[in-house]
From TrEMBL:
Gene name tied to this protein: rnhB
Domain RNase H type-2: 11-200
GO biological process, one term: mismatch repair
A Pfam family it matches: RNase_HII
Keyword vocabulary terms for this entry: Cytoplasm, Endonuclease, Hydrolase, Manganese, Metal-binding, Nuclease
Reactions listed under catalytic activity: Endonucleolytic cleavage to 5'-phosphomonoester
Chief site of localization: cytoplasm
EC number, UniProt record: 3.1.26.4
PANTHER family linked to this entry: RIBONUCLEASE H2 SUBUNIT A (PTHR10954), RIBONUCLEASE HII (PTHR10954:SF18)
Residues binding a divalent metal cation, per UniProt: 17-18, 109
Subcellular location: Cytoplasm
InterPro entries in the cross-refs: RNase_HII (IPR022898), RNase_HII/HIII (IPR001352), RNase_HII/HIII_dom (IPR024567), RNaseH-like_sf (IPR012337), RNaseH_sf (IPR036397)
Native source species: Winogradskyella psychrotolerans RS-3
Name listed for the protein in its UniProt record: Ribonuclease HII
Cellular component terms (Gene Ontology): cytoplasm; ribonuclease H2 complex
Length: 200
């Protein structure tokens, strides 16, 4: 499927997406990207469909060819305070606020968003596999978040965040069981399946 460049009829349209929503540790990271209407790239797709190698190749290309881009992390403590949905939207708002060009329209991956300033927006299910600007935002969100997780992996290598990026893999859950949690874990998340079982 060929990804489209525009959703709206506005000239300056920004796409936004987040990464790390379902993780047990680390931030939720969002990116916002405005692409020129002349932008073309056949490799660009939803970051989940791309290999790490291709994401790494696309990142500088998106940064260089975009009209503007912004990236925002929202960290564990805030996720635990305001919940992951609000944190995801706040990260998207933060990424949009970093754009050097003010968008006239915002397209959002998924089905939940809160209005940003007075800019009209549309939520698009699987938008990252339909529109280039959302796909570009998904690549930046994922690569920036992965780089952060690889950095904190050095501090706590036993959780292997370098590999699992904080997602709830069997290995990650086994490490939580063995070593407990770190300051990077989201305390409001169900970190282990048996947390909900009561010893009566």
């Amino acid at each position: 499927m060929v990804l489209k460049i525009q959703f709206s009829t506005y000239n300056i349209e920004c796409g936004t997406d987040e990464a790390g929503r379902g993780c047990l540790a680390g931030p939720v990271t969002a990116a916002a990207v405005i692409l020129p209407v002349t932008f073309k790239n056949t490799q660009l797709n939803d970051s989940k469909q791309l290999s790490k190698k291709n994401r790494v190749i696309l990142k500088p290309l998106i940064e260089n060819e975009s009209v503007s881009y912004g990236v925002q992390h929202i960290f564990e403590q805030e996720i635990d305070t305001i919940n992951i949905l609000n944190a995801s939207i706040k990260a998207m708002h933060g990424a949009i606020s970093k754009l050097k060009t003010i968008p006239e329209f915002i397209i959002v991956d998924g089905n939940r968003f809160k209005p940003y300033e007075n800019i009209p927006h549309a939520t698009i299910i699987k938008g990252d596999s339909k529109y280039l600007s959302i796909a570009a935002a998904s690549v930046l969100a994922k690569t920036y978040r992965d780089a952060y997780m690889e950095k904190i992996h050095e501090e706590f290598p036993m959780y292997n965040w370098k590999q699992n990026k904080g997602y709830p893999t069997k290995e990650h859950r086994a490490a939580i069981k063995k070593y407990g949690i770190t300051k990077y874990h989201r305390k409001s998340f169900r970190l282990l399946p048996e947390q909900y079982k009561l010893d009566i």
